[in-house]
Amino acid sequence: MVVKRPLVGRSISPIGLGCMNLSWAYAAPPTQEDSARLLNRALDLGYEHLDTARLYANGGNETLLGEALKGRRAEFFLASKTGLFAEGTKRWVDCSPATIRRSCEESLKALRTDFIDLYYLHRRDFTVPIEEWAGAMGELVREGKIGGYGLSEMSAETLRTAHAVHPVAAVQVEYSLWTRNPEIAMLSASRELGVALVAFSPLGRGVFANGVRDPSTLGEHDIRRGHPRFSAQNWPINLSLAESFNLVAARQGVSPAQLALAWVLSRGEHVHAIPGTSKLEHLGENIGRPGWRPDQAVLDELDGLINQRTVAGPRYPDAMQKTMDSEDFN
């Protein structure tokens, strides 16, 4: 039985679908036809929350959703993002009010809708005062273009400042057994303010779904190739942790992905998770045990096995980490 959780005034399943890898970032993306088939199958299986962004394939992921799901818009909660852009190897942040408004209009057009349920700022723009971009997002809410706004990869301090300008509906953070950064401050701050916390990469970028055995076999453009935890030095340590984790999942009679998601959702009643996949079999697996939770002894065992002290390597390369506003372990 699915126990639903609140998100921007609605009650939805806490396991949604991150759509990024249908267009960008990991393995070679599936064809448009296969992606459309997967998205429609997701709705048929009961997925309610779909997450995309203007960044993904420079709007291509939004266009994919708009085309694949035309006629089914009323069946799902739609989240997208703005503020982070890329062109070739160039990457930049722009959260100026004019860009927020223009980007929102572009997203609405690409998504074939007149309403986005949850619209995030993808990264913090340190050149624009928080009051300006929070105010701009609030205007979009008042105009009925978006249901609520959120923050992605930002700090608890930024959340509190923005929330005072216009209430923040959700924060999106990387959160999994091997990425515990939200536990520094954001998990408690979001709970205190009544803000939903949406965990991306809850399966450790595929590691806790048996998705990576040998990083050297990853595709040439797979972003994990440049992430420290997948380096030749760090990977043997992290693979050993994953193998121990798999044994716990087998003992519980669930798949590693199901155990990893259950752990994330155990962290608070305001927590949601948006695993991504391009495989139909994984799509069903990820929501195959929606109401199952391991007992506290298992949760404690996992906490001791995989955490910021046992994982080898930071989550991002130095250059990328420096662009983040979210808290990091010293």
From TrEMBL:
Gene Ontology CC: one annotated term: cytoplasm
GO MF annotation list: oxidoreductase activity
InterPro entries with a match to the protein in the record: AKR (IPR020471), Aldo-Keto_reductase (IPR050791), NAD(P)_OxRdtase_dom_sf (IPR036812), NADP_OxRdtase_dom (IPR023210)
Record's keyword terms, sorted: Oxidoreductase
Residues of the NADP-dependent oxidoreductase domain: 14-288
A Pfam family hit: Aldo_ket_red
Cited PANTHER family: AFLATOXIN B1 ALDEHYDE REDUCTASE, ALDO-KETO REDUCTASE YAKC [NADP(+)]
Name recorded for this polypeptide: Aldo/keto reductase
Origin species: Aurantiacibacter xanthus
Taxonomic classification: Bacteria, Pseudomonadati, Pseudomonadota, Alphaproteobacteria, Sphingomonadales
